[in-house]
Write a sequence for this structure.
């Protein structure tokens, strides 16, 4: 089976590589020449554990190729996946579909033979139909169908998520498209991964509804954490007690600095706009967004309070900048809200992150200081803020940390450490909801 993937970012590159691993002949396309040049040299443009080995294995086997020339590959293929970005449009929060629609325009004239065009990007209801319209109008004779196959992988465990998904969701209109997609995902039958076929719109909505629900769980526990802080309850115990109920589940119940990343922030906003378009108010999702925005601001207040009411002139070591561990993705990371505010109030920020520094430099104020080692961040620090729970920060030698630092303030925004242990080490320890 021949497959073309348009867009070779986190989703396109992982999906293409995994389809090649399934045995398909895959070409990943990207407009960004530098990305394609890197990939053709065997360099992986993003940090995703295990991806480099899998790309190498499949390029060596001749099943995975990269190009910036869509014309050279789109005509001779069974399936074309659109996996381009759908960021928030400035202002309103609508998904910007311009990349999806340009991809549709680019391929319209190239199609030859029966082809299924599959939206893998996260897109609002009706987008697959719009893609169909664009292609039909540009090339009335084209023999094609559209499908919607939203992606649920998580950065940091993307390959495992793709190869062992909880489910695969595919929206189709005809059996012809269904048969081809069933064939593509056949290797997943071995592990009995559920493959759910729906109509186009349901598939599109499943993705947004799932992300909004997970984001709501996070905002819910963050709101509960505020109550814990006021009342003396421990959010760890509360989350554990809730999560042991199978109807609730323990995942996504970790109090912290608020969700970030390339999906939840933009997808919650987009869902609110989609609902509005249909005359529906999404009060729960709106509250989820509001609670999340407030949570980031609460973290600034928490840090300020820990520093005695002012961060002016204080040296703060920040451990972790990315929105979560095991990725270099900085999109909508809580650090992007919290750190500029601290800098503006006169703090000196010395930051360490295992993978995110390069991207952080493009997004954070130039006053930021980046260091190579955790020790370099900690030395002379008045306070440390644990922002992202990378494994490297989970087992810090606390005695050493205490000795290297100038001060003893430890602000743990991920609740990695135990308050009583930190007290024993002599830290002035602050965390979330405990
Ligand atoms: P990304 O920004 O990492 O990658 C998108 C790529 O598409 C870029 O490399 C860009 O150069 C390329 N591109 C844009 N227009 C193009 C065109 N016309 N031709 C060729 N290449 C083009 O984005 P991503 O994180 O991979 O997300 C892609 C989609 O998948 C989004 O809709 C996102 O919401 C969704 N999604 C993302 C994740 C995630 O964890 N990142 C998970 C599930 C779903």
């Amino acid at each position: 089976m021949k497959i073309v993937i348009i867009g070779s970012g986190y989703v396109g590159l992982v999906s293409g590589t995994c389809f090649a691993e399934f045995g398909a002949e895959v070409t990943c396309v990207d407009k960004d020449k530098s990305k394609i040049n890197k990939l053709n040299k065997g360099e992986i443009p993003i940090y995703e554990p295990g991806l480099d080995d899998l790309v190498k294995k499949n390029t060596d086997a001749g099943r995975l190729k990269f190009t910036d020339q869509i014309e050279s590959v789109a005509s001779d293929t069974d399936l074309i996946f659109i996996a381009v970005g759908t960021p928030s449009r400035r202002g309103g929060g609508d998904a910007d579909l311009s990349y999806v629609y340009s991809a549709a325009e680019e391929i319209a004239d190239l199609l030859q033979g029966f082809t299924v065009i599959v939206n893998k990007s996260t897109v609002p209801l009706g987008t697959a139909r719009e893609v169909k319209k664009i292609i039909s109008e540009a090339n009335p004779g084209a023999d094609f169908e559209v499908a919607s196959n939203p992606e649920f992988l998580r950065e940091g465990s993307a390959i495992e998520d793709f190869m062992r998904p909880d489910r695969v969701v595919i929206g189709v209109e005809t059996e012809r498209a269904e048969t081809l997609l069933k064939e593509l995902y056949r290797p997943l039958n071995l592990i009995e991964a559920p493959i759910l076929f729906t109509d186009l719109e349901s598939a599109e909505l499943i993705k947004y509804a799932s992300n909004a629900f997970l984001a709501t769980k996070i905002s819910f526990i963050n709101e509960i954490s505020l109550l814990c802080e006021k009342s003396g309850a421990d959010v760890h115990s509360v989350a554990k007690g809730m999560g042991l109920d199978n109807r609730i589940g323990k995942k996504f119940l970790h109090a912290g600095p608020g969700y970030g990343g390339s999906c939840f922030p933009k997808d919650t906003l987009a869902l609110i706009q989609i609902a509005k378009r249909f005359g529906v108010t999404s009060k729960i999702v709106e509250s989820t967004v509001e609670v999340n925005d407030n949570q980031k601001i609460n973290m600034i207040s928490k840090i300020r309070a820990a520093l005695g009411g002012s961060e002016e002139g204080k040296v703060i070591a920040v451990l972790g900048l990315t929105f979560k561990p095991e990725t270099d993705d900085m999109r909508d990371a809580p650090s992007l809200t919290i750190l500029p505010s601290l800098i503006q109030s006169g703090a000196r920020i010395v930051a360490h992150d295992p993978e995110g520094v390069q991207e952080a430099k493009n997004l954070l104020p130039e006053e930021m200081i980046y260091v190579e080692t955790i020790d370099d961040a900690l030395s002379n620090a008045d306070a440390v803020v644990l922002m992202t729970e990378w494994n490297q920060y989970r087992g810090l030698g606390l005695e050493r940390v205490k000795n290297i630092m100038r001060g003893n303030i430890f602000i743990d925004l991920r609740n990695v450490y135990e308050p009583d242990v930190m007290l024993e080490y002599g830290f002035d320890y602050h965390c979330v909801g405990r």
User: Anything to note?
Assistant: The chain has a mean pLDDT of 97. The first strand starts at residue 2 and ends at 6. The two ends are 54 Å apart (CA to CA).
